[in-house]
Every structure is written in structure tokens, then in C-alpha cells.
Write a structure and sequence with these properties.
- By secondary structure, the chain is α+β, with helices and mostly antiparallel strands.
- It has two domains: about 40 residues, no CATH class; about 70 residues, Nucleotidyltransferase, domain 5.
- A four-stranded mixed beta sheet has the order 3-2-1-4.
- A hairpin with a 2-residue loop joins strand 1 and strand 2.
- The protein is elongated and about 75 Å long.
- The protein starts with a helix and ends in a 6-residue tail after the last helix.
- The mean pLDDT is about 80.
């Protein structure tokens, strides 16, 4: 969890506990080595067995699939410009697309256009989990919020 989520949660709990005159005292951070030392000093007894018997409870499993990967690139030269997009599905299937841009543009514009084409295609096929890869420094240094 991020710090802001944790602090929001703590603030809400603080307000709930305030009506009962309970004061929240935050716990100090435990250093990793201290925890490791404690576990080393207090080993689990050998006679303890882990039980996988869950009486009267359903065990639910959520299966997650890895996200698709999208690679994009664009290039421009005096005779024209083009853009390419390659998708790799979670099963490893490769889907490649190339586009000829009708207007002359800079390399940066061709890179942007390749990214836009790829994202539009992902939206059209309702692919919401996507890792995007490209070599454009312009695109990589731009802050994105989707």
C-alpha cells in the first residue's frame, strides 16, 4: 500500500476510535534484522504441523493471467514516415501491425503516432492489462496517467 492510502486509513480509524476515548499510538518501525533475530531465537516447534484442513469453508482461487505486451516504434525520413506496433498475448502469440503515415512528420511525432495507434488498438480489443515498451526517449520521459 502507498503511504497516502495508509495515512487515510489511519485517519479514518482515529476518528472512529475518538468517540470511545481510545488513543492511537503508532508502532515504531521494526528493523528487518530484529525480526530475523526474533525468528531465529524462537523457532517453530518440530511437532507443529501445518494443516490444510479447512472445515466448512470454501477456498476461493483467483486466476490471473499475465498482461499483454505492446512494443511500438516510429520512424521518419525524407520519403515518408511509418509506425509499427507488435502485441504479444499472454499465451505468447505475436500480432504485428505496420502503418504508413500520410503526412511528413518528425521522428518524435512518428513515435507518438505509433504509441497512439497501439493504445487505440488495445482499447478496441478491450485489452486492459498491457505492458508498453518503446525506445523513444521522448515518450519514456513524458509523465503518463491512464
Amino acid at each position: 500500500m502507498t503511504k497516502s492510502v495508509l495515512s487515510d486509513r489511519l485517519a479514518r480509524w482515529y476518528l472512529q476510535l475518538q468517540q470511545f476515548e481510545i488513543t492511537y499510538v503508532p508502532q515504531k518501525t521494526i528493523k528487518g534484522q530484529v525480526l530475523a533475530n526474533f525468528l531465529d531465537d524462537h523457532p517453530m516447534p518440530a511437532e507443529w504441523e501445518l494443516s490444510d484442513d479447512l472445515p466448512d469453508e470454501d477456498v476461493l482461487m483467483i486466476e490471473t493471467t499475465p498482461p499483454w505486451k505492446m512494443y511500438f516504434d516510429g520512424a521518419s525520413h525524407k520519403e515518408g514516415a511509418g509506425a509499427g506496433v507488435v502485441f504479444v498475448t499472454s499465451e505468447g502469440e505475436v500480432l504485428s501491425y505496420s502503418f504508413t503515415l500520410t503526412q511528413n512528420c518528425s521522428n518524435n511525432m512518428a513515435e507518438y503516432q505509433a504509441l497512439i495507434f497501439g493504445l487505440e488498438m488495445a482499447v478496441d480489443i478491450k485489452q486492459r492489462h498491457l505492458k508498453v515498451y518503446g525506445d523513444s526517449q521522448l515518450v519514456q520521459s513524458t509523465p503518463w496517467s491512464l
